[in-house]
Structure formats: C-alpha cells, structure tokens
Specification:
Length: 435
C-alpha cells in the first residue's frame, strides 16, 4: 500500500475551528474515518445541501455512504449519547450499520461521571476566598471518565457492556466509591444502585453489540488492505492535556500525538497533517486567551461568525488570530498544511490584527507560546496590523477572486507559520471552499 495517503485533521487553537467541515470534505478521498480522542465534548458541524448536522461522537465521515467510521480506543463513549446520535442520523435517512465500529477498549462515560463533572465545577466555582476556579467544562463527564481509566480498577470499557455479570461486579465496587465522592462534593442524591445501572447499561451494550469490536486489528487490517485513513481530531491542540494551556484543557491528547495511543496505529501511518485554524481566535470556557477582544470587536466577530457552542450553546470568547499559539500547535502536531477557516467573518473590518509575539512581565519579547495558564495569563500580545477588506467573500471559489487585502492576510499567515495554506473556507457549506 502507498504509505502517503493517510491524513490527520487537527484543530490548532482552542476548538471549533471548523474541523467537521474539512473532515466532511476530505472524506471523499479516504476510506476510513477515525476518531481517536475526546468524547461528546466535541461538536462538529457539517452542512450538506442546507442540511446541518452536529456530530459529537460519530466521525463526521458518516454522512457519506460506503465509508467506514471508527471510534477508537482513545475516545470516551457515552452510550446514551451514542445511541441518540445513531437514532437522530437514522431519522434523517443516514444509514448506520456495518459502517460504524466502536472500540471494545474505549472507556465508558457513566452517569456518575457527568454528575461528578458538574459537581466539581460547582465546587470550584465557589472556592473559598479564591474566586471562580472552575474550568468551564462541557459537563459531559469527560474528565472523570478519563480519570477512571487512569485509576483502572473503577473503569468500565465498552466491551464490559456486553456481559451483564462482569458489568454488575464492576459497578458494585465502583458505585460505593462514587457515592462517597459525590457526597463529599455536596451532591444530595439517592445512593447509586449497581443493579439498576448494570441492567440499563447492559441493555445499551445489547443495542450497540453489532458495532463493538477490536478496532485496533480492524484498523491494521484496513491499512494492510490498502485503505486510506482520515483521523478526525476532537477538541484541539491548545486543549491537549500535556501540551495545552494546563489546567484549562480537556483530559485527552487531542493533538496528533494522541492518534497513536488512541487508535493503536504507529506514527508511520500518519502522512499528512492538515492543521485547521480560524482566521481569528475563539475559546469556550475559562483560561488565558492573550489576543481576546472583550469589547465591540469581540462582539462583532461573535455575531458575524455565529460563535455559539455546538455542544453547549455557550457564547464563545472571540479575539484576533494568535500566530504564536498557532505556530506552536503546528509544531506539536507535525502540521504539513493549513486550512484557514471562516475568513468570510473578517469581511468589513477596517483593520485586522495578528498577534506575532508576547511581551513578558520582565519586559522582554518572546515568540514562544507558554503552555501554562498562570504564566500565559501574564503575557501581553504584540500585534501587527493589516488593512481589512470591505467585500463579502462568501461566494468566492477561486483564490484569484479573493480581495487583495484578504490574499495579503493569508500570505502573512503562511509566511509566519512557514506552512502552505491548502484550503481557505468562506462559509459553512461544502461549496464555500477555496482550494
Ligand atoms: P469543529 O468543532 O472544529 O468541527 O467546529 P464547529 O462545528 O464547532 O464550529 C465551526 C462553525 O463554523 C460551524 O457552525 C460551521 O458550520 C461553521 N463554519 C465552518 N466553516 C466556516 C466558514 O468558512 N465560514 C463560516 N461563516 N462558518 C463556517
Ligand atoms: P470541538 O471538537 C471547544 C473545552 C471546554 C472547556 C475545556 C474542558 O468541538 O472543537 P471538557 O468538557 O473537555 O472537560 O472541557 O475544554 N472544550 C472545547 N472547546 N471545542 C471543543 O471541541 C471542546 N472540547 C472541550 O469548553 O473549556
Ligand atoms: Mg466544535
């Protein structure tokens, strides 16, 4: 097989860069679409013929017929959400059968994980004398589910849902521990009943049985059969547990570094990495954001870009592009080309700013990103300013039809990142793409 046909799609900012749209576009050229990290904290939007789909767990390639979609072992799966997503897609005439495989080793998000997530956030938001210390999570139980994976003895994997007795034995231990923890977090609820939970989740296992397999062997078989893979990153590099703005991150390796552990495929199988970036910056939840615009400009970007969360509906924080941050993410992810998304949102600004360095508290300038929330919060953005363009560009399909100032903006980004921009997106639809 040709080793050069597998592609990774990864967000280079704080999420919601438009990964879903690009996965959908590139699915046409690949055979297998693979999620390797995160869970239902992701919200990937795909627009096909004016129909909008929001996908949380199922790979965005599912809208194509004859493509295999795989939820790898690195994902944390909420079976309730997965079944809901399958049903919603089926209601919209999308076929789901043998084309969806879920790793038997993917960890399960249980209801007590979601409760724990919400209770901990509540507790952190009222941390005595310290102000709000919460992360601003999606409350999808992601952190507690990954924590159980690391704890090991209290974890439940998708394969466990296929055996009621195994599940019940695990839940008997886990429920008593969870009850104590939830009570300590101030949750006043009846004790967790392992028998009821085992019944309910074994039933989800029955419903999902046709999909649950050893995806590691399946993916290696695909590679050996000459199939091409498209890896769909969820969340984004600056939210990576090891390389993001810790502790304001998610709980998985969402950079491309997570692909290998999250699928069982070694590094040699990732050939092209398309780094997805917005033409500006957004962030949902708490954490430092040096180029954030808190006034009218941020508001203008939010309204024009419809910057409200796909998963939680929260308004996204908005600001100018932070090239220091994007260059760092591109480095971590081994990015080979860039897709610059939502360029249309910048039409109408007289001038556009680009953060090209940080001023540190001691007065020195740095071109290095700071993947630590406390220190990054002290960095001041140093901006370059470029002229904007008044023209709307949402019907542009050829690079030469972009306004000269838009072209100059893209050229500056490409020069700064030392990477080619292979795709420019000027609207949510497939057709609103300049290649
Ligand atoms: P993801 O999480 O990275 O897949 O991104 P989301 O789907 O959460 O958010 C991106 C939003 O921008 C979605 O509503 C997309 O439909 C929309 N979108 C994608 N590309 C473009 C674009 O080029 N222009 C505009 N205006 N919207 C876009
Ligand atoms: P997609 O794939 C935007 C953010 C949350 C929060 C932090 C931790 O759609 O780009 P978590 O629930 O994961 O424990 O929350 O991470 N976050 C995202 N923000 N897009 C996402 O995914 C996100 N996934 C997690 O807002 O700040
Ligand atoms: Mg999203």
């Amino acid at each position: 097989m040709s080793a050069n046909k597998n592609t990774a799609i990864v967000g280079l900012q704080w999420g919601d860069e438009g990964k879903g749209k690009i996965v959908d576009l590139l699915t046409a050229k690949h055979d297998v679409i693979v999620r390797y990290n995160g869970g239902a904290n992701a919200g990937h939007t795909v627009v096909v013929d004016d129909e909008k789909y929001a996908l949380h767990l199922i790979p965005s390639g599912i809208l194509y017929k004859d493509k295999l979609c795989v939820i790898g072992n690195g994902v944390v799966v909420d079976p309730v959400q997965l079944i809901k997503e399958i049903d919603t897609l089926r209601d919209r005439s999308i076929e789901i059968g043998n084309n969806l495989k879920v790793s038997d080793r993917a960890h399960v998000v249980m209801p007590y994980h979601k409760e724990h997530d919400a209770a901990l956030e509540r507790k952190l938001s009222q941390a005595a004398g310290k102000g709000d210390q919460s992360i601003g999570t999606t409350k999808r139980g992601i952190g507690p589910a990954y924590a159980d994976k690391v704890h090991r003895a209290t974890a439940i994997r998708m394969g466990d849902l296929l055996d009621h007795d195994v599940l019940l034995e695990k839940l008997k231990t886990t429920c008593s521990i969870r009850c104590a923890e939830l009570t300590a977090l101030g949750v006043e609820a009846p004790p967790l009943d392992p028998h009821a939970l085992a019944e309910e989740y074994a039933e989800y296992g029955t419903q999902l049985t046709p999909h649950i397999i050893d995806t590691v062997y399946e993916l290696h078989d695909c590679v050996n059969d000459g199939k091409s893979l498209l890896f769909e990153g969820a969340n984004a590099c600056l939210l990576d547990i090891d390389h993001g703005t810790f502790p304001f991150v998610t709980s998985s390796n969402c950079s491309t570094l997570g692909i290998h552990s999250g699928t069982g495929l070694p590094g040699k199988y990732v050939n092209n990495v398309v780094g997805i970036m917005k033409a500006y910056s957004t962030r949902v939840g708490a954490g430092p954001f040096p180029s954030e615009e808190l006034g009218e400009i941020g508001e203008q970007i939010r309204e024009k870009g419809n910057e409200y969360g796909t998963t939680t509906g929260r308004p996204r924080r908005c600001g100018w592009i932070d090239l220091v941050a994007v260059k760092y993410s591109a480095m971590i992810c081994g990015t080979t080309s860039i897709a610059c998304m939502l360029l249309d949102v910048l039409s109408g600004f007289d001038e556009i700013k680009l953060c090209v360095a940080y001023k540190l508290p001691d007065g020195t300038l740095s071109d290095r990103f700071i993947p630590d929330a406390r220190r990054l919060a002290l960095a001041e953005p140093i901006f370059e300013t470029m002229a904007g363009w008044p023209e709307e560009i949402d019907d542009v399909t050829s690079p030469c039809d972009l306004p000269a100032n838009a072209q100059a903006y893209l050229d500056r980004i490409s020069e700064f990142l030392q990477l080619p921009i292979s795709i420019v997106s000027v609207g949510p639809k497939r057709s609103q793409t300049v290649i």
